[in-house]
Design brief:
globular; 228 residues; Metallo-beta-lactamase, Chain A; alpha/beta; 29% strand
């Protein structure tokens, strides 16, 4: 299994099926410059780069890496990608603190029997909503705490489609990671209100059209309502 096009200029370039079983879903946006959303666990950077090249795109154009939260399966490749290509690392400030101190427990690195060295974060988001412009394209980063205190969700309107990157909507939720189910429910209601046409999830694939996106999020709201 190789990289896949999600919709125009948006690709899946890494995942447990494509690169390494420990990897989250890694998404690539071609918006004049290349933007990665998450990086996998760090053991498969070469494979991710190879997949980008296989799309006839130059990995040297990777300008930003948006990390949706601080867990190793999402952040592990970030240090190498920055070193190789000079990419800026973007995170919410609350999870950036964990990354910058290289906390093996809060990054879940110890769960994966991996090490994560302290890494500085170039751009630390602090607001509920922050917008970035790449040429004529706007990307919106939303603070959606719950899975971790500094979890982010990202969306953009591409053509006539609203594409939502909602990594780890499904959880899990553990007190030791600073999870907060009440905050997560509020975050999920916020994502439902976006009425996204395509959901790029962190581990379970791509959901479309709009009714399937809403059903996926609602499914987990119902599961955790029963467990409350």
């Amino acid at each position: 299994m190789g990289p896949a096009e999600v919709t125009k200029d948006i690709y899946l370039v890494g995942s447990a099926d494509i690169t390494d079983p420990r990897d989250c879903a890694v998404y690539l946006l071609d918006l004049g410059e290349l933007i990665l959303i998450d990086t996998g666990a760090g053991t498969s950077v070469d494979e991710i780069v190879h997949n980008i090249e296989g799309l006839d795109l130059a990995p040297e154009r990777i300008a930003r890496v948006i990390l949706t939260h601080c867990h190793i399966d999402h952040i592990g490749g970030a240090p190498e990608l920055r070193e190789r290509f000079g990419a800026q690392i973007v995170m919410h400030q609350l999870d950036a603190e964990v990354v910058e101190r290289g906390d093996d427990r809060m990054t879940a690195a110890s769960w994966y029997n991996l090490r994560f060295p302290p890494m500085s974060v170039d751009v630390k988001l602090t607001k509920e909503e922050e917008r970035f412009r790449f040429g004529d394209q706007e990307i919106v980063c939303l603070h959606t705490p719950g899975h971790t205190p500094g979890s982010l969700s990202v969306y953009l309107d591409r053509g006539d489609k609203r594409v939502l990157f909602g990594q780890d909507i499904h959880g899990p939720f553990y007190e030791e990671f600073g999870s907060d189910l009440a905050a997560w429910r509020r975050s999920m209601e916020r994502l439902l209100a976006l009425e996204a046409d395509i959901l790029c999830e962190g581990h379970f694939g791509i959901y479309q059209p709009k009714d399937r996106v809403a059903a996926y999020i609602q499914h987990y709201l119902e599961i955790y309502e029963e467990e409350a």
